[in-house]
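As noted in the main text, all predictions were made from sequence alone. Below is one such record, for dTDP-4-dehydrorhamnose reductase.
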Amino acid sequence: MTHLPRSPLELWVGPEATVSRVGNEYLDQSELSGFASRPEDVARLASLGASRVRFPVLWERVTKALGDEPNWTWSDGRLEVVKSSGLKPIAGLLHHGSGPTGTSLVDDAFPELLARYARQVAERYPWIDAWTPVNEPLTTARFAGLYGHWYPHGRDERTWWACLKNELMGTVLAMRAIRDVTPGALLVQTEDLGCTRATPKLQYQADFENVRRWLTFDLLSGRVDREHTMWKFLRWIGADERDLAWFQDNPLPPDILGINAYVTSERFLDHRLHLYPKEVHGGNERDAYADVEAVRVLGEGMGGFRARLLEAHERYGAPMAITEAHLGCTREEQLRWLHDAWHAAEDARLEGADVRAVTVWSAFGAFEWNSLLTRREGHYEPGLWDVRAEKPRPTALVTLARQLARGEEPSHPVLDAPGWWARSHRLLYPAFGAVTVERRRARPILVTGATGTLGRAFARVCEIRGLPYVLTRRDVLDIADAESVKSALDSVRPWAVVNAAGFVRVDDAESDSRNDRENVDGAAILAAQCALRGIPLVTYSSDLVFDGSKGRPYVESDAPNPLNAYGRSKRAAEEATLAAHDHALVVRTSAFFGPWDEYNFVVHVLRSLRERGEVVAAEDAVVSPTYVPDLVNASLDLLIDAEFGVWHLANEGALSWADFARVVAEQANLDSALVRGVATSELNLRAPRPAYTVLSSERGRIMPAFDSALHRFFRDTREETPTVLGAAD
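Prediction:
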């Protein structure tokens, strides 16, 4: 008989705290995110209404090398703050790491060394009642012992087993030491619980992987005996029978199973290699096959958290929690992933599973996971807070987490549409099986400016991001006509409006009355009508509101002083918009270029060099080139986060127009010597131009570097359907 667990579903939280090792280089997520240096982050976590925090007391951070005196300064200070905050910690001792210098996952002494450290931690903090000595042991063993990504960089099954055995023996001995100090301490054992599907020919391999995924829990529970499906395999790869018997003699069933699931954890194996690119080809000693994300090929999609929770419930019948719910993606997809995880937990509870909590993970974001921590490129994916600012900026995930913790129904409009993993565009390869997709009715974003570069770009990006939209032409919505605006807003009933319309010809603006009508009057009317209806608004301004005299990058608080009519109209539009709508988002940007139109500087340079052999550009005017897909993606994230006021969005970089042209030529393997730099005065422009309008931000530097943007421009222009999700390669 199914029944609900008695207590409500809890919200837990955790910062991504991995300390990983590649070669002799350690990568510390707490340092990279700034969590290590901000005591006030504990208050941020507590403000969510979470009951527990997965908190790092990591071995490598306390003891850099074996034999060193432990340094408890950071842990002492932070755990005291945690204790007073009301959050109950789940102490983590090893998170995808291999211990301090002087030991490793293949060191026979590793289990005893970890247990010794665990005892030290427990004796210092005896009030901590829940522990994860080793995070995701099987996953870590695969990445460190089988795939070679992390130290000790093994690439064989014997090394994989040595890593896993030592992690799990270390867990047993660590919990024994902890319980000597704190009887009744809970083991919250986490694991990334993937699932593998396959074509019939490869079902045997999928069956093997679907049994192997349980090894963390099965070994700890003393289940791996001679009758266990993995026994013969483990013995075949060199597992000592005495080691296997040790786990049977020293069972440590987890008190709470920590179930983690990611889109990439669900795999599909296909022997039809011709359907897939070579980079996903692999195999075993018997068959060659492609190994891809199941969501990209399975018609029925992925199982996700609900399927994994119910499988674990059927196998163990133990209390469970989702211990990591995080997706590195655009903001609406992050919201949808967390929302889906919460509902998966609730659904599993309705079917009788004892699911205690859902953990919002990577509270302050994560670094370098796009390369599985193997490269140092500065790649960052935000979490609940975005740390690319003077202080962490709360994203829409904070609001969602608080609503979930309070038991409220989440209210963000983007949750009315399914995540990308449930839409048809998820499929990158010929579908295996009948395709099923979720279809929901959701309110749209209204985008003005259907004939312009920015409006069309919003339509493309909204399509990719699964954000319903209505793109309007002037004959449907004239932003400078109040009645037209009222009619469109009342008809479309958008949850947000993006004003991508406006007069853009800088030199013509000196004498064309349409400049003020479209840029000032239209902006003011649209803002007023949106404000009356409580509709969030995004509108665009320009770097030309500045006179260029500062000589350093302009930030949002710098005083505008436009030199030309276009700049004056944009400044007037800023003031009118914010006066009419105090929660409007005004984005200043600069020097568009993009892959989807022919009317931008990069396309002009390429065409001129190929057709005429020369480009003339200003050598004395410095700007921040802005890649349109990056601009649109960042704008949508800020809109979803309910940001307002003035924001600067331009790619990180500063180039003269002439240098911009030279870099473009070099990237295209054209002759950059054909770019002739001249003074702006020689170009005979009607409107005066400032000499320096580089934009930066004091609110958050969320745009990628210009070099990355230009690289992606050339990649995207080569592709029939450019992918603009995600900023940096």
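The first strand starts at residue 10 and ends at 13. The domain at 10-426 is CATH 3.20.20.80 (TIM Barrel). These features were considered when defining construct boundaries for the mutagenesis experiments described in Section 2.9.
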